[in-house]
Amino acid sequence: MPAKVERLRPKRHEIIAQSLQLALELPLGLSQGTRDEIAEALGRYESDATWTYTMLSPEQLRTVLKLINATERPATTLRVWTALVSHVRFDSGEIMAGRTRLAEDAETTPQEASRALARLTDMGALTRLHLGRYAINPNVGWAGSLAKRETAAKEALALRLVGK
User: Fold this and answer.
1) CATH 1.10.10.10: which residues of the chain?
2) Please, which of 12, 20, 94, 114 could form a disulfide with 89 given CB 3.0 to 4.6 Å?
3) pLDDT for the residue 164
4) Could you give the 3-state DSSP secondary structure of residue 26?
5) Class of domain 55-153
6) Mean pLDDT (whole number) for 92-104
7) Which one-letter DSSP state was computed for residue 88?
8) Mean pLDDT of the chain
């Protein structure tokens, strides 16, 4: 029987992740900036040992690719899109990485990542939750239960072509 390789993580990482998640869920009256910083930290401490499954609508994904190709910087936008799909939060669709992390993953600058996020928001692939925080359009992709996706999709906008 082949050996199973597991990533060793300090136990405190799981405790930190649970604490950060709790802080986001409790009605503590935190400022949006503080909530953003907590969400970014949660993305760093959540276990990546288990695989998550982000569902993508094949038809909507083809549309997103066509819309990306029609943008001013298609290669950068596609790299940021690909990077952010790996940071979709389970059952909310929120992107749990800020522009700096997405820029690192996409091998671009934070400024270019911000521009790509704006293009993806303009075309409807993402929804801007507030300054610097985004969620994937539930009509395009989702991680979590289908019932929650269907509820979220009722309020989501359709994809749309944006000018170059």
Assistant:
1) 55-153
2) 94
3) 47
4) coil
5) mainly alpha
6) 90
7) B
8) 84
**How do beta strands 133-136 and 126-130 pair?**
antiparallel
Model pTM? 0.70
Smallest Cα–Cα separation from 70: which of 120, 139, 112?
A: 120
User: SS3 of 56, please?
Assistant: strand
Q: Which amino acid is at 139?
A: N
**Distances from the Cα of 107 to the Cα of 62, 80, 103, angstroms:** 23, 9, 6
Q: Which residues fall within 8 angstroms of residue 105, CB to CB, at 6 or more apart?
A: 83, 86, 97
CA distance 140 to 153: 9
For residue 160, give Cα distances in angstroms to 4, 98, 137, 151.
46, 24, 12, 21
Euclidean distance between CA atoms 153 and 137, whole angstroms: 7
Q: What is the pLDDT of residues 28-43, one digit of tens each?
A: 888 877 887 888 788 7
Question: Rounded to a whole number, what is the distance in angstroms from the first to the last CA of the chain?
Answer: 55
Are 25 and 42 in contact by the 8 Å Cβ rule? The answer is no
- For 157, phi then psi, to 5°, come to -80, 160
